[in-house]
Amino acid sequence: MVLSPQDKTNVKAVFGKIGGQAEAYGGETLERMFATYPQTKTYFPHFDLAKGSAQVKGHGKKVAAALVEAANNIDDIAGALSKLSDLHAQKLRVDPVNFKLLGQCFLVVVASHNPSLLTPEVHASLDKFLCAVGTVLTAKYR
Amino acid sequence: AVSLPRLLIVYPWTQRFFDNFGNLSSPTAIIGNPKVRAHGKKVLTSFGEAVKNLDNIKGTYSKLSELHCEKLHVDPENFRLLGDILVIVLASHFGRDFTPACQFAWQKLVGVVAHALARKYH
């Protein structure tokens, strides 16, 4: 999936609007993902996953920061996330299906906090962007 | 009723089933298209039936499953896509009230409905 100029504009606008709340959104995304798709918890046996967990919040910040970085370098997501791509391929090896689940939860978080922001067109662009991020992170798997 | 137009916009390849619906050339056209609106209403009403018959979703969708396989030839993946869209629409509608627990229940429900609609495929 190729991001059109309009997609890129839409994605940047979303992250511009979210601004400093991105970190909190990251935490909520993970909280929703663990609650909605329990199988995703298997990647975090070393975490306290109880509600309000500081570890989940901390990890959410990291995830959000990566999404923000990708959005800020939307013309070269592969370049921007190259190190993360290596990490996921060599160490984390999160099964590719899980990126879609994370993406769904991120969209739910954005929708629940900013209903008017996520028009169908913006929804499409953001969904494409999240797909692109997932593709980059799994690109070096084999 | 907004879920179907959103599905057609976010996943444009799903438009393949609606060639005879007229103008689907842009998001504005899709949202304003009376056939899309009418069909969206049909789909969501059917969803409402599932909610009223939570103990027998398979039975509720048995005939519809046959229809979607034998007459409509819809890949069941599309039911999953629509389910995900519906969840996001609910989230934007209910905001904070759409808690993680709520999302969990609804994602399960849309999954069960998708499964029920695919069940009679052969």
Automatic annotation (TrEMBL), chain A:
Record carries keyword Plastid: no
PROSITE patterns to which the protein is assigned, alphabetical: GLOBIN
Gene Ontology molecular function: haptoglobin binding; heme binding; iron ion binding; organic acid binding; oxygen binding; oxygen carrier activity; peroxidase activity
Residue stretches making up the Globin domain: 2-142
Record's signal peptide: none
Membership in a protein family: Belongs to the globin family.
The protein's role, per its UniProt record: Involved in oxygen transport from the lung to the various peripheral tissues.
Protein name: HBA protein
Originating species: Rhagologus leucostigma
Native organism taxonomy: Eukaryota, Metazoa, Chordata, Craniata, Vertebrata
Gene that encodes the chain: Hbaa
UniProtKB/TrEMBL annotation, chain B:
This protein's name: Hemoglobin subunit beta
Its biological purpose: Involved in oxygen transport from the lung to the various peripheral tissues.
Gene Ontology MF terms: haptoglobin binding; heme binding; metal ion binding; organic acid binding; oxygen binding; oxygen carrier activity; peroxidase activity
Source species of the chain: Rhagologus leucostigma
UniProt-listed InterPro entries: Globin (IPR000971), Globin-like_sf (IPR009050), Globin/Proto (IPR012292), Hemoglobin_b (IPR002337), Hemoglobin_oxygen_transport (IPR050056)
Record-annotated Globin domain positions: 1-122
PANTHER family: HEMOGLOBIN FAMILY MEMBER (PTHR11442), HEMOGLOBIN SUBUNIT EPSILON (PTHR11442:SF7)
Any single GO BP term: hydrogen peroxide catabolic process
Family: Belongs to the globin family.
Stored Pfam families: Globin
Keywords: Heme, Iron, Metal-binding, Oxygen transport, Transport
Oligomer and partners: Heterotetramer of two alpha chains and two beta chains.
Gene: Hbe
TM helices/strands, residue ranges: none
One Gene Ontology CC term in the entry: haptoglobin-hemoglobin complex
